[in-house]
Amino acid sequence: MDVFHREALAADLANKVLFVAPTSASGSGLFLAAPRRTGKSTFLREDLRPQLEKQGALVVYVDLWEDRRADPGDVIVHAVRAELSRHDGVVKRLARSAGMEKVTVGGVAFSLDRVGLGEGVSLSAALAALSDETNQVIVLIVDEAQHAITSERGNDALFALKAARDELNSSRHRGLRVVATGSNRDKLAMLRNSRDQAFYGAPLVNFPPLGPDYVAWFCERVGLAAPLDPMVVQELFTHAAFRPELLGAAADALRFEFGLAPQDVPGRFAAAVQEQIDASNDELLRVVHSLTPLQAAVLKVLARRGADYAPFEGATLQAYQAVLQAANPAGEARADVPAVQQALLALQEKALVWRAARGVYAIEEAVLAELMEQRGLLADVP
Ligand SMILES: Nc1ncnc2c1ncn2[C@@H]1O[C@H](COP(=O)(O)OP(=O)(O)O)[C@@H](O)[C@H]1O
Ligand SMILES: [Mg+2]
Q1: Which of 52, 135, 318, 369 is the most buried (most CB within 10 A)?
Q2: Alpha carbon distance 206, 360 (integer Å)
Q3: Phi/psi of residue 143, each to 5°?
Q4: Measuring from atom 4 of ligand 1, which residue has the nearest CA?
Q5: Is the CB of 220 under 6 A from ligand 1?
Q6: 368 close to 352: Cβ distance less than 8 angstroms
Q7: 247 within 8 A of 233, measured Cβ to Cβ
Q8: What homologous superfamily does CATH list for 7-206?
Q9: How far, in Å, from the CA of 218 to the mean position of ligand 1?
Q10: What is the DSSP-derived secondary structure letter of residue 177?
Q11: Which residue has a Cα nearest atom 23 of ligand 1?
Q12: How far is the CA of 41 from the centre of ligand 1 (A)?
């Protein structure tokens, strides 16, 4: 795939991550927030990672969204083990410190399965050994990090990383930096809000969307029957909430419109982008329209309350009931606590709702709440 590179941004961020001022909290890590499909993962893989490596860091990349069913805690541990396995010296070191002096003799092999949460070798010890052996600063990139606090093991992994960070950033070692990304500021904020959280105080930065330089790059290589004006496309791109895929899909649609006259290209392109936006919105709303009355009521109340949402309080239960009533005055559905619990579970399974392990809920995609508001779906929420 053709990628527009953002080298200046990568160099700037790599600097901020690697060279920490003594007074700065960035030793705590760095959080980048931006909506879904705006190019975070692409940037991490294609630009930030190579830049960090160029500046001498050892990068471990973990995507907590890649396999939604895997426990985020395990995904983090596996990524660390995979990196360890690439360095023979580190494995020997760990074997020695685990009391297995003769690692290569006598057929007793040290197994990396011992590295983990509550296992023989802690993540902290493993990462310290890795950094000492390679003499490199380690940067752990956790993509879609908000997923980590949806499970106990994920939470455990974050606390283990906090311990690792404190250990590796002491004067005895080269250092560990954690870069986390996520699509929702509120959720990321939970990772750094309270003192007992793994990333207390880490700076939360808005990851900048792709800009006019990307749009110019896109227009240059789009290859339609007539050129596109970057100024106009920039407006369309903003309207498309900075999602490159929508521009790409619109261009693809035009390529298959045989007999399209060159003078009609700009107008048709604008229309095609709008079609892509509508299709993407319809797709989101289609799921909402397939919900049971109670699931829909719970989702609407959550969308309206946002960060103040308290799922089982009396007033909230009344709000669900009012929404049910408005949708169907003769309906039988009751919003009691067990039924609401069921509904929240179903909404999580449909990936509409996100739940932190300690029972905090949020809408999975912030744009969905906006869209429901726009379409008047929240009008019945008291
Ligand atoms: N720098 C870029 N150049 C070209 N296309 C991009 C770029 N960044 C993102 N894209 C396109 O947008 C899609 C979504 O990007 P992705 O990095 O997965 O977003 P996010 O991680 O924010 O959800 C990618 O599949 C790719 O097609
Ligand atoms: Mg991503």
Answers
A1: 52
A2: 23
A3: -85, 135
A4: 3
A5: no
A6: yes
A7: yes
A8: P-loop containing nucleotide triphosphate hydrolases (3.40.50.300)
A9: 13
A10: E
A11: 37
A12: 7
- Judged by its nearest atom, the ligand closest to the C-alpha of residue 39 is 1
47 CA to middle of ligand 1, Å? 12
Question: pLDDT tens digits, the chain, 382 residues: what are they?
Answer: 689 999 999 999 999 888 866 555 546 678 899 988 999 999 999 999 999 999 999 999 999 988 888 999 999 999 999 999 899 888 888 877 776 555 554 445 667 788 888 777 889 999 999 999 999 999 999 999 988 888 889 989 988 998 898 889 888 888 999 999 988 777 777 777 766 666 777 888 899 999 999 999 999 999 999 999 999 999 999 999 999 999 999 999 999 888 899 999 999 999 999 999 999 999 989 999 999 999 999 999 999 998 889 999 999 999 999 999 999 888 888 899 999 999 999 999 898 999 887 788 989 888 899 999 999 999 999 8
Q: Fold for domain 291-374?
A: Arc Repressor Mutant, subunit A (1.10.10)
Using CA atoms, how far apart are residues 364 and 108, in angstroms rounded to an integer?
47
- Alpha-carbon span 320 to 298, nearest angstrom: 6
Q: Identify the helix (H) or strand (E) that includes residue 312.
A: none
Tell me which ligand sits closest to the C-alpha of residue 42: 1
As given in the structure block, the two tokens for residue 247 are 């521009």
DSSP state, 92?
H
